[in-house]
Structure formats: C-alpha cells, structure tokens
Amino acid sequence: MSPPEPVRLFGSYTSPFVRRIRIVCLELGVPFSMVDTMTPEGQADLRQRSPIWKVPAAEINGQLVLDSHVISDVLLARYGGQGPLASLALDDIEGRNAVSVIDGALDALINVFYLAKDGVTPEQVPYLEKQRARAASALSWLDARVHEPFVTSKQALGLPEVALGTALGWMRFRNAYPIGTHPRLMRCLEALEARPSFLSTAPG
C-alpha cells in the first residue's frame, strides 16, 4: 500500500474539534499540514472553499471533507487498518452516545465562552445559564459511566476517548468548567494525556 497523501487541515490550534483530527492523524500515521484559520489568509482560504466557514475542514486526496465526525470516519476507513485507533461501529450505541454527550457539553460551553467574550454572561441571559447546566449534566453523566481509563468498555483508544480528552483539555485551557469536580474523568484525561498524540497537540 502506498503511503497516505498529506491531509490539508483547516482550523485553529486551540479548537478542540480540530485537535481531534490532529490526534486521529497522528495515531494513524497520516501526515497533515495546518491552514491556520485564525489568520486573515487562512480564514479567506477556508471561506473560499467551505460554504459553512466551520472548522475543521480537511482536504483528503484533493477532496474537501466537512465536520470533525465525517473527517474522522473518512480517515479511519482509509487508513485505520489494524492501527492503534479503533473505529466506531454503527451499532456501538454506548460509544456513539458518549460522543454525542461530549459534543453536547462542549457545544454548550463554547456558546457560553464566546458570548462571555462579548460581555454576555449566564447571569444576564437565562439561555446561557441553561447551557452551563446542560454541560454539568452531561459531564456528570459521563463521569458516572466512564470505564477507567477509557470512555468505553473495550479498553482501547477510540473516537470517544479522543473526543473526551480534547473536550476536557479545552475546558481546562479556557477555564470554561471546573473539570476537577469529576474525578473519574480527570483520571481518564491524565491517562490520555500521557500519549504522544495528546502531548504534542495540547493547547497553550
């Protein structure tokens, strides 16, 4: 099999969703280059190609792929093989539910974070207080179900683990949520952050 072509990844270095793809590429041994969309040139490049202006986006073998879930699935389908990163089967309801809950918590806290930068706080807007409570509910649910040191019971690194590690890493980096209140999730994060792919992509 010929080596994979480099992936051209559009996104910022602090985005947890972009970091997911960086980790997937590193775990699969797929080379990639970053187009930093925090620069004017990178943002213009993204908007020229993607109708939704959302990161991550990735060019894989010359084809633009949108959304972190789709990008991950494409990379695993093409380059997963017998590698260290397990794909997420269609009937893996536990794993898929975990990713959905992780995404829900992350989306809620990202809403709160960016609106706070504009001076809008949860104390001012009930919607944001609901988002913060939604995140707390999601993380409590995960903390009660995590199979240490992994999210699923298969004891193998997979997309739920990548999603959790990058979400918790962003929450800690942005001081968006007191993740220390969930000790099992913290122990899971510590185990994941010992991996080279997590260490080399840590925000900050």
Strand content: 5-15%
Mean pLDDT, rounded to whole units? 93
Walk across the major sheet and give the strand order.
2-1-3-4
Could you name the ranges where pLDDT drops below 50 across 5 or more consecutive residues?
Answer: none
Number of DSSP E strands: 4
Count of DSSP-assigned helices: 8
The structural class is alpha+beta
Terminal Cα span: 37 Å
Order of helices and strands: EHEHEEHHHHHH
Main β sheet profile? 4 strands, mixed
Radius of gyration: 17 Å
Q: In one word, what is the shape? A: globular
Indicate the percent of residues in helices: 40-55%
How would you describe this structure to a colleague?
With 204 residues, the chain is of the alpha+beta class. Helices cover 53% and strands 9% of the residues. The protein contains 8 helices and 4 strands; from the N terminus they run E-H-E-H-E-E-H-H-H-H-H-H. It has a 4-stranded mixed sheet. The longest helix has 25 residues, at 93-117. It is globular. The protein starts with 6 loop residues before the first strand and ends in a 5-residue tail after the last helix.
